[in-house]
Amino acid sequence: MRRYRVDVRDASLRRIGQIDAYTSLDVIVRHLDVGTWSLTLPAAHPQARLLTTGQGVIIWPDTLTGTDPEQGAEPLLSGPVSKVRHDWSSTTGTDGTLTFTGTCDNAPLAERLAFPDPSRPPDTGTGRYATDYWERQGPAATVVRELIAVNLGERALPGRRVTGLDTTSPPGESVPGGRSASARLRFDTVLSAVQTLATTAGLSVRIVQPDATAPRLTLAITPARDRSREVRLSRQLGNLSTYSYELSAPKATRAVVAAQGRGTDRFFWQWTNPDSERDWNRTAEVFVDQRDSPVPAKLDSTDPQFTALAEAAGRALEQGGQQAELSLSPIDIPQMSYGRHYRVGDTVTVTTVGGVDLAYPVREVHITDTADASTVQATVGTGAATKTPALYGQVRRLWQAVHQLNTRY
After folding, report:
1. 162 by DSSP, 3-state: which?
2. CA nearest 330: which of 228, 231, 242, 226?
């Protein structure tokens, strides 16, 4: 019995059928990023004719919610087809298989740039914008919603709009004002801007088709939930089958930041991460071009220009810093299952065999479903790549504990 239901939609987002004869389903749901899906079924099966280029799917966790999708269940994801593959072999005696692959509906966030002036296309007038940056300040959810509305929603230029996307707040949605956020964007991808704004404010942002009977995509912005007390995964509770973690050396331990100026007049300053260099006995330099930043008048935190350069260095050192990754395979039990008790973006607690509690957001969930088995694998962390200094520190302590145990004998 399949654990998931797949509705098929056409290019106008209207439901045209349902697939339940797949031989395998693979879904990756990502927090503040683009998820993917893959669906394989016999090429000769009538349901194989439902999907083709330009169409898409809505994937529902039927048995996890215990309800019919039209009764208010939340989809795992929805999204368009991006690739179709036909596999056949003379040894099988069949017509082979068709595999449909696609992304979730967050994909347009990565495919749109944040124009300095979203109301004007770059190929009109004199070819120049009258403003350098798109700038906004206010509650993070409000800034994110407007950013998406003017670049791919109903307020975007006609050729940039995503079919059926409604960026207005859904009825009953309650997002606290939270931390004030500011955006200063010039041809950044909309996705990278959303990731920065939402992460800082503790928000979850995704585009999804919540109702197969309504041809409409919804921009859902919700607070990321702290479920670390309610959702605990451990061997003792019987809801954790495996986990693994790994440490990787840094790719950047020193950031040389360059501000305005030319030649010998250009300003340079270096920031260093001494902990990374000490831990790995390694020095790795990276150049950060901040040519739009003025030269600071003072070389300390009292100068806003110097602070801006320091922040740019910090981002570079974090992106290239020492890495730790923790992945795990939870076991769905009635008291603790993905889709019902927690979802991507929620903070959960993982208890290791050594009794160490790790509480971090679920960054990614990988679901596979076949006739033989259905599995769920989660990755936790706090950075865009689930690899951040805080998680690194905890995983490193785990590694040291294991090392000490192994060297006792």
Report:
1. coil
2. 242
**First and final CA of the chain: distance in angstroms?**
49
Name the DSSP letter for residue 232. E
408 contacts: CB under 8 Å, gap ≥ 6: none
- Angle value at C-alpha 337, between 331 and 342, nearest 5 degrees: 125
Pairwise CA distance, residues 395 & 393, whole Å: 6
Which pLDDT belongs to residue 237? 87
Nearest CA-CA partner of 203 in 171, 164, 173: 173
The stretches in the chain having pLDDT less than 50 are 63-72, 384-390, 401, 403-409
pLDDT digits (tens, 9 = 90+) for 188-216: 999 999 998 998 888 999 999 999 999 99
Q: Is 158 exposed, middle or buried (0-12, 13-18, 19+ CB in 10 A)?
A: exposed
- Rounded to 5 degrees, φ, ψ at 54 are 90, -10
The CA distance from 322 to 155, in Å, is 41
d(CA 27, CA 35): 8
Q: How far apart are CA 400 and CA 391, in angstroms?
A: 14
Distance, CA of 187 to CA of 253 (rounded, Å)? 28
So what's the pLDDT on residue 393?
53
C-alpha span between 274 and 265 (Å, rounded)? 29
Distance, in Å, from the CA atom of 26 to the CA atom of 52, rounded to the nearest integer, reads 18
**Closest Cα partner for 47 from 75, 16, 76?**
16
Distance from C-alpha of 41 to C-alpha of 97, rounded to nearest angstrom: 6
